[in-house]
Design a protein that fits this description.
12 helices
Amino acid sequence: MPKTPFTFRGLMVPVLTPFNNDSAKTLNLSVIPQYVEHLAKKKITGILVNGTTGEGTSMSVAERKLAAEAWAKAVKTTKQHLMVQVGGAPLPDVLELARHAENIKADSLLCLPELYFKPTTTYQLTEYLKLVSKAAPNTPLLYYHIPMLTNVNVHMGLFLESLGDKIPNFAGIKFTSSNLEEGSQALNADNKKYVVFLGNDQLLGAGCALGMNSFIATSINMLPELAFQILTEGTVGNNLKARETQEKLSKAVIAISKYGSWVETMKTAMSLLTNIDPGPTRAPLTILPSEITAAMAKDLQNLGHEITI
């Protein structure tokens, strides 16, 4: 069992990794103290580093360590929960990142599956996560289910139901999928033993209606007030109000994401809607041209959102 049980519930932000606009798109860690204060002022109490939004799989092991260390230092002041995503690399590197995250006292680990020799059964996934668990046995471990990017389609309800005590520090999953039937089975697995973070920005309200109370969604970076309102209304059963607020958030998400891939557009929206400039994306992602950024800004203004630049 981990030294500290996993008790975090609520909204967690998958943070963007700031890069400089130079030829190598080098890390710009100087932005992180301002970024963490921005989130703290918005009452965000959980941070996920090096996830999909953070372009973790586009960074070297050394860079991922540097980013995790910078966030770990920053949250010492704000007391936010720090989750570090360690997967999406060759297994020796994943284990090294897991050990590193535990050494810098991350509050929890999130791990993608093996991305080449993909697990196809609950047994194979469990065996993989056992190895990660042994590398960081004192830190709660969560699995990152995002089948549209990993093409790993192990059923999360069946996986969680099968686990038992095979991974002592296993705490739950990040469920980035629109399959809420599967998500509901995961939530109710083994007498609701595990936390399920829904990772779909347009289904927060629906998740609340199913009994979910924890979410990791990129749009919380720039529109936290809407996410908090959905969670507040949804958890007390005010589904009509939650649905109305979800529609506002979904319209903004659609207005942003229609202009390119997820991280490209969300990184642009962060600079439009907040005073945080996370810089460009890193290859193989591309930087949106200025005319696209201007069109996105206009769309967001038309929806009633204030543009900061």
